[in-house]
């Protein structure tokens, strides 16, 4: 019998094997001997489980990302600006150790910083994370050595966040634990993990997604509130939840999640808000006043047309675009033949925020990677998107090398615009594929085995209460007669109770 980690909570069907359903995963498995056979034995005592394998691989890739930063760790962070760009190993962490007063023992939000910044421009929970790392960094010696140790301490704390993300994504879709390999092996994850402190919010968001998949609305709300106290984007997940609960008529769970999210956010922020109001609001004023910056289509417009795009103008139009995206998602959610999966809409709303924002830092890709693995677990599409993000990762550093280096080595503005376009088009491509899966559930890899919404919690298999247009036809997830554990024939043969071979034991469906 499969272990508890390999079976669905609703039935004893074994976990889906990507190497038997995904052509790219099947081809990649040839490096380690090919897909496991039908009669393959598990290790004695069950020591090799998806959670352990994915977590170890994620830690290994994180370590490779640290190795990639070695030229900067050894010298490039401290000997001029240009070298850290030409080696593509830049990180905010050692620079902000000095620039935000941690080297002098200043307390975030309470102590005023020298220069124009005045106060730390990060949300409260991220500021606490940074301060804890400063307290743990007890290195004596030169300032350079202290910066190195501060980066190492932060890397160790971010490594814990990486392990949390790997475990949570592995457990969110009970029958598809191996989809989390997309997160563990994502090249952009390894390259950007230690640029900034975004992994804290990503880990809390991944844990919130896991809690929602288990039907724990209170825990989900608490974690989303904490994640929003570390980074603003997790609050966006409440928007698709509103639409899905509207269609399913599950208002109690939505309001429970929303109120607990607001409560946990307030609990973290209120002490700083009352004791240091000027320092607390710096993050929000900085976000509003920040100029059009790297990575956005706004920058292309500004540089190609020589137009002066004021922050207020970019903020207004970005907000209007997000409202239009939300309205489009509302129509999509309420008119789709089956209720979209939570991970699909969560990916779309965060991707829309990234695409319309006036700045795109390379580490923002971390926000999307776990959501992409849950929304569209297909290696081909994921790798196409990752290739675009790696191209952007290299492009921004080469552009900065060009603008800061005396010899003008690197990418000029025209080349950097192509890198931005690659990022934008890669993200739009993945969004288009996810939308297609929503409109054509038979092409959704998660639903091809009869599942409805493994990350949906109380929404998984719930009947529709409100739709715009015809109700979900019989046999579609979301139809009243469909419940978790009921196999739906999407054009593939389900596994019978006797254990006969199903479509998951055959090569990938060519339609995907």
Automatic annotation (TrEMBL):
Bilayer-spanning residue ranges: 49-67, 119-136, 148-169, 181-212, 218-246, 317-336, 342-361, 382-400, 420-439
Source domain of life: Bacteria
UniProt keyword list: Cell membrane, Membrane, Transferase, Transmembrane, Transmembrane helix
Localization annotation: Cell membrane
UniProt biased composition (Basic and acidic residues): 10-24, 503-512
Keyword Transmembrane included in the entry's annotation: yes
Region (Disordered): 1-30, 443-512
Topology relative to the membrane: Multi-pass membrane protein
Family annotation (Pfam families): GT87 (PF09594)
Presence of keyword Cell membrane: yes
Biased composition (Low complexity): 469-480
Entry's family note: Belongs to the glycosyltransferase 87 family.
Listed name of the protein: Glycosyltransferase 87 family protein
């Amino acid at each position: 019998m499969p272990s508890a980690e390999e079976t669905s909570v609703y039935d004893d069907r074994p976990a889906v094997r990507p190497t038997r359903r995904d052509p790219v995963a099947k081809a990649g498995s040839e490096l380690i001997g090919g897909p496991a056979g039908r009669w393959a034995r598990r290790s004695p005592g069950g020591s090799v489980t998806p959670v352990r394998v994915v977590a170890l691989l994620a830690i290994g890739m994180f370590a490779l990302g640290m190795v990639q930063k070695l030229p900067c760790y050894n010298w490039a962070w401290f000997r001029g600006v240009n070298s850290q760009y030409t080696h593509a190993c830049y990180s905010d962490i050692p620079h902000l150790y000095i620039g935000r007063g941690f080297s002098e023992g200043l307390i975030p939000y309470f102590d005023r910083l020298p220069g124009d910044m005045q106060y730390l421009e990060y949300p409260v929970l991220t500021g606490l994370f940074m301060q804890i790392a400063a307290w743990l960094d007890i290195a004596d010696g030169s300032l350079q050595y202290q910066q190195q140790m501060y980066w190492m301490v932060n890397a160790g704390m971010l490594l814990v966040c990486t392990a949390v993300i790997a475990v949570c994504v592995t457990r969110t879709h009970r029958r598809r634990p191996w989809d989390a390999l997309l997160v563990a092996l994502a090249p952009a994850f390894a390259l950007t993990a230690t640029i900034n402190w975004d992994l804290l919010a990503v880990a809390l968001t991944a844990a919130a997604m896991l809690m929602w998949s288990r039907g724990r609305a209170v825990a989900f709300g608490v974690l989303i509130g904490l994640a929003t106290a570390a980074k603003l984007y997790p609050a966006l997940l409440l928007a698709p939840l509103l639409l899905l609960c509207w269609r399913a008529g599950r208002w109690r769970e939505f309001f429970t999640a929303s109120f607990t999210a607001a409560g946990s956010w307030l609990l973290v922020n209120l002490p700083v808000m009352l004791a240091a109001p000027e320092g607390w609001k710096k993050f929000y004023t900085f976000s509003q006043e920040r100029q059009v910056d790297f990575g956005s289509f706004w920058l292309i417009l500004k540089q190609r047309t020589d137009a002066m795009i004021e922050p207020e103008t970019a903020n207004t139009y970005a907000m209007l675009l997000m409202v239009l995206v939300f309205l489009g998602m509302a129509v999509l959610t309420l008119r789709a033949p089956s209720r979209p999966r939570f991970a699909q809409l969560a990916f779309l709303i965060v991707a829309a925020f990234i695409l319309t924002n006036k700045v795109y830092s390379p580490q923002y890709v971390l926000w999307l990677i776990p959501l992409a693995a849950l929304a569209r677990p297909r290696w081909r599409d994921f790798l196409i998107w990752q290739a675009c993000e790696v191209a952007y990762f290299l492009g921004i550093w080469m552009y900065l090398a060009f603008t800061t280096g005396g010899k003008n080595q690197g990418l000029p503005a025209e080349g950097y615009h192509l890198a931005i376009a690659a990022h934008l088009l890669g993200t739009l491509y993945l969004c288009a594929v996810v939308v297609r899966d929503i409109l054509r559930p038979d092409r959704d890899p998660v639903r091809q085995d009869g599942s409805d919404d493994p990350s949906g919690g109380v929404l998984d298999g719930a009947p529709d209460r409100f739709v715009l247009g015809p109700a979900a036809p019989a046999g579609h997830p979301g139809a009243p007669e469909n419940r978790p554990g009921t196999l739906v024939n999407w054009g593939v043969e389900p596994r019978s109770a006797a254990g006969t071979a199903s479509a998951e034991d055959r090569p990938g469906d060519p339609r995907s």
